[in-house]
Amino acid sequence: MEYTSWNISISPLEQKELLYPILAELGFDSFEETSEGLKAFIPTDDYKNDLVEEVKSHAWLASSKVEITVEQHEHQNWNEVWESNFQPIQIEDRLLIRAPFHPENTRVKMDLLIAPQMSFGTGHHETTYLMCNMLLDYPVTDKSVLDMGSGTGILAILCEKLGAKKTLGIEIEEMAVQNAMDNAALNNCSKTAFLHGDANGIPQEKYELILANINRNILLQDMDKYAAALKQGGDLFLSGFYNSDVEILVTKANELGLTRINKTLKNDWCLLQLQK
């Protein structure tokens, strides 16, 4: 597959965090952090020439200096490219997320293998980190789990490692589904499955825990389907949005009979715990 990439330089640098959800909604599906901002990738077939101006039209960018350089990439071994940039992620002494080519750390309690490919969710991004950190403190044991927008499968796989009785991941990107299945096999998971699709493909059953690390607009659009699939007393964890988005998401949740239980933040990115 051919990809188009943007090298984005932004000042002040912390403003780059605001670009992730905007770029994701435009079809960019993979990101690398750089010293000057970030690099974003989109399949060339999905790329439109007016996207640069569309991004720069956002009002909050008026106070920022943004430069975007567009590159075209022919067919490459994207796994090799990704591996060269992938670094292990450690959450205290509780969890190490690493690629198969990284060494183990025997001082860390749990080891999770992710073969990096072009799908979101290796633990580098704040929202994936928030989700992993939350799951380490949550009673996952013997629960049925649904992971929406499962990406590399990292959250679904972690749930099985934490004792979930069964876990299903649903992902709209077909390449990511295969990557997630490969990652589940790497971690010897036997209770985790993945489906290609969106919220319309949620099976007709109830789950005790639902995870959705996507973006604000998709969460607002599909929250009714998550609520319908959640068991009474079950928890829904939402992430992929900013602290400023909490009010509109909680309002929607309350309309669906969900109650806000907790909120955690990392660099203004947010995770909400809701309960039915």
Largest β-sheet summary: 7 strands, mixed
The number of strands is: 14
Low-confidence stretches: none
Helix count, per DSSP? 8
* Helix proportion: 25-40%
Q: What is Rg? A: 18 Å
Structural class: alpha/beta
Q: What do the pLDDT scores average to?
A: 88
CATH class of the largest domain: Alpha Beta
Query: Could you say what the CATH topology of the largest domain is called?
Result: Rossmann fold
Number of domain units: 2
Relevant CATH superfamily of the largest domain: Vaccinia Virus protein VP39
The H/E string reads EHEEHEHEEEHEHEHEEHEHEE
Order of strands across the widest beta sheet?
10-9-8-11-12-14-13
Overall shape: globular
Give the termini separation.
42 Å
Strand portion: 25-35%
**CATH architectural label of the largest domain:** 3-Layer(aba) Sandwich
Walk me through the structure.
The protein has 276 residues and is an alpha/beta fold. It contains eight helices and 14 strands. The protein has helices at 19-25, 51-56, 78-83, 126-137, 154-161, 174-186, 216-229, 246-255, and strands at 3-11, 30-33, 37-43, 65-73, 89-91, 95-98, 110-113, 144-148, 166-171, 192-196, 207-213, 230-242, 259-266, 269-275. The strands form three sheets. The chain has a seven-stranded mixed beta sheet with strand order 10-9-8-11-12-14-13, with helices on both faces. A four-stranded antiparallel beta sheet has the order 2-3-1-4, covered by helices on one side. Helix 4 runs parallel beside helix 5 and helix 7 runs parallel beside helix 8. The longest helix has 14 residues, at 216-229. The radius of gyration is 18 Å and the shape is globular. The mean pLDDT is 88. One of its GO terms (biological process) is methylation.
